[in-house]
Amino acid sequence: MSTEKHHISTYMSHGVVLTILLALTALSVGMAELHFGAFSVAVALLVASVKGTTVLTYFMHLKYESMFTRIMVGGVFVIYVLVIVLLFFDYLFR
Amino acid sequence: MAEIKNIAPSEHHDYQGSKMGMWLFIFTELFLFGGLFLVYAVFRTQYSADFHKAAEETNTFIGTLNTVVLLISSMTVAMSITAIQSNQKGRAIRLLLVTLVLASVFMVNKYFEWGHKFELKLYPGSEVLTNLPKGELLFFGLYFMMTGLHAIHVLVGMILLTVTIFRIKSGHIHTGNFSMIENSGLYWHLVDLIWIFLFPMMYLIT
Amino acid sequence: MSHSETHPQVSYLEYQGKYKGILGWLTTTDHKRIALLYMYCIVVFFFVAAILGLTMSIEKMRPGQDIMNAQTYNGLFTVHGIIMIFMIVIPGLAAVFGNFALPLLIGARDVAFPKLNLFSWYLYVIGAILAVLSQLLKGGAPDTGWTFYVPYSAGSSTNVIWALTAAFILGFSNILTGLNFIVTIHRMRAPGMTWFKMPLFPWSLYATAWIQVLATPIVGITLLMVIAERVLHIGFFDPALGGDPVLFQHLFWIYSHPAVYIMILPAMGVITEIFPTFSQKPVFGYGAIAISSLAIAFVGYFVWGHHMFTSGISYWSKWFFSFLTFIVAVPSAIKVFNWISTMYGGSIQMRPPLLYAISFVFLFMIGGFTGLFLGALATNVQLHDTTFVVAHFHYIIFGGMGFAFFAAIHYWYPKMYGKMYSDRWAYIAWGFTFVGFNLLYFPQFIIGVQGMPRRYFDYLPQFQWGHMLSGFGAFILLIGLILMAWNLIYHVKRGAIAPANPWKGVTLEWQIASPPTLENFEEIPVIKHNPYWFGTEEEIKREKKSVTRNT
Lengths: 94, 206, 551
Hints:
The complex is a heterotrimer of chains A (about 90), B (about 210) and C (about 550). Chain B is an all-alpha fold. Helices cover about 80% and strands about 0% of the residues of chain B. Chain B contains eight helices and no strands. The longest helix of chain B has about 35 residues, at about 135-170. Chain C has helices at about 1-5, 20-25, 30-60, 70-105, 115-135, 150-155, 160-185, 200-230, 245-280, 285-300, 315-345, 350-375, 375-385, 385-415, 425-450, 465-495, 535-550, and strands at about 420, 495.
C-alpha cells in the first residue's frame, strides 16, 4: 500500500514558512497605508500571489509532489488567467 | 502486478489516486470562487473610486487579525500531518484541536464584523445600502457574498477536521494510512488560500 | 484468483450483494449498474422532453394560438431546454456509456471512487426532482429559456429559483463524475496500457472530464449569484440593483459553451470506437484523434464570446472570439477525416451501430458547417436569434450527441444485457428517426435565414410552410424513437443470446463475457498492442498462447 516514500516536512520548516507569510501580510498592510494610488492594487495582488504560491508550495506540499500534479496545478492557474484576459478583452476595449 | 491482480476494488486503497481526486476537487472550489473574482475584477475596474470609498468601511484590523489567525491555523494543520507521519498521535490531535480553536476565533471575529455592518444598516436590500452610489452597492454585495461563501467553507473545513480527529482517535488514520488527514489538510489550506486573495480585495484596497 | 472462487461466475445483472432487488440497485457501487440507473432516468426524461418539443411543433404548425397560450409556450421551451440540456445531453454519454465502458475499455474492475459515483447519481436524481418540481409548483413553470438571462430571470415571477437550484445540483453531479473519470484514467489503466495504447473513447472522456471539472463551477457560482440576487437582493447582474447583465452572459457562457464540448466529445469518442470495429481495420490517425480531443477541449474553453456577438461586447473581443471559434473547427474536421479514412479499404459491415455512426458524421457536418456561419461576425448579426440557430444546435446536439447515443446503445447493448436486438427493426427505426429529424430541423435553417425569430409563439404566414414541415417531421421522428425504444426494451427479455463478441471487436470489453461479471476481468489483462490491433487469426492465436504461457 503506502510503500511509496513520503517526504516528511519538519516542524521547524513549517514555522519558517509561517514567519514568511506573516511578514508578507505585514508588508501588504503597510503598503496599503502608504497609498500608492493606482499601484496599490497591483502591489496588493502581487503580495497575495506570492503568499498563495508559498502556501501551495510548502503547506500544500506541491514541492514534493509528482511533476504531473505540479503541471496540473500550474495549468489550472494559467487557464484561469486566460479567462480573465479574454473577459477583459471585452471590458477594456468597449 | 501480481498483487494488483487478486485484490477486489474495495480492498484496494490508492493513496496517489485519492490525493489526485482531492486536488481536482480543490480546482472546482477555486473556480467557484474564481467566478466571483471575475465579477469583482470587472466591477472594480468600472467603479474604482466607489470601491476605494466602500473598502474604507471594512475593518482592516479585524481583517488582518483574521488573516493571521488563518495563517497560523494552516501551519498547525501542516504540523499535524508531520506528527502523524512521525507516529505522534497525541500531538497530531492536539495540533488539530488548536486549528479548530483558531477557526472558531475566525468565525467569532466574522460574526462581530458582520454584526457591525448590520448595525450600520449596511446589509443587502437595506434602504441605506440601496441609496449608496452604484459602485459601493456592488462592493457590499460582493463583500457579503464572498466572505459569506468563504465562511461556509470554514465551517465545512471545521467539520472535516473534527471527523479527522475522531478517525485518528479510532486508529483509522495512522503512519501507514494518512490520506484522510492529508486531504482535509489540503482543504483547510484551500480555505486559507482563498482568504489570502479575499483579504487585500476587501480590506486593503483603499 | 481467490475472488473468482468466492463469487461464482454470475453476471453483474444477476449478482446479489447485501441487498436484493431494487434496493440492490439503489445501493450498488458497480459502475455498470450505475450506468444503467443513469440510462433509465435519461431515457424517461428524454421522452418527456421530446413530447414537450412535439407539442411546441404542433402549436407552431399554424400561425396564431392553436393548442396553448403564449405563456404556456414560454414555459414549454424553457422546460424542454432545461431537461434536455442539464438532464440529458450533458450527463448523457459520459454518465451512461462512460460509466459502463470506461473501466471495461481500460481493463479496470471499477472506477476510482465507486461510492462517489453512486453519490453523483443521487445528486442527479435530486437535481432532476427539483427540476420537475419547478414545473409543477405554484408560480408556474420558469419562462426564461434554459439560459436564465438576467434581467428577465431576476424579475420573472415563475419558479426560477427551483430551476436554478436544480441546474446547480445537476452541475455538481457532473463535476464528481468528471473527477472520478480523471483519476480512473490516470490510476487504473491495465498494466502495459500506456497513454497511447489507450482506446480513444477514454481519451475523449478524459478531455471531457477536465472541462467538467474546470468549467462547471463557474456556472455553479453564477447560478448561486442569481439566486442571491433574487432572494437577498444582492446586486450582481440586475441593472435595478446596479449590476451588469452582459457580465451574466459572459459567466454563463464561460461554462455553457464548454458544455457543448462536454456533450460532443464523448459522442466523438463513441463514434471512434464504432468505425474500426465495423470496418475491421485499425483506426486511421490514432494520435491525431487523441490529441484533437484535448485540443477541442482546450480551445473550446475560450470561445464563449461567440454567443454574445450581438450583446454589445467590444470590437476586439468579437474579433478574437470569432477567430478562436474558427480554430475549433480544425480538430473537429481532423476527426471527421479520420473516421472516413478508417472506413476506406476496410471490410465494412453495415450493422445498426455503424449506420447510426455514419448518420452522426453526416448530421454533425451539417451542424458544424452551419456553426461556421454563426461564428463569422457578419453573418452572425443576420442569423442571431433566428431559427437558424435552433436548427444548428439541434443538428449538433441531437444529430450529433443524440445519434451518437443511439449508436452507442446499439453498439454496447449486447454487452449490457447479453441479448441481441432485431437488426431489421433497428434499420426501420433508423429510417424514421433519420428522415423525421431532417424534416424537423432542416426547414428551420431556411426560414431562419428568411428572418423567422427563435422562441416566438406566433409568426408571419410566409413562414408557415417551414413550421408545417417541422411539425410533420416531429411526428415521424417520435415514431422512430418509439420503434427504437420498443426494439431495445422488448429484446432485453426476448432477444437471442448475445455472444461475448458479436461485432468481432478487438477492444477489451469484447474479450470478456456478455454481460460481464461483477468484477469485469477475472484476471487483469496485460496490454501489448495498440487498442485497435486487428491481427490475423494466426497472429492472435499465437499471441493468446504466449499469454497463457506467461501466466
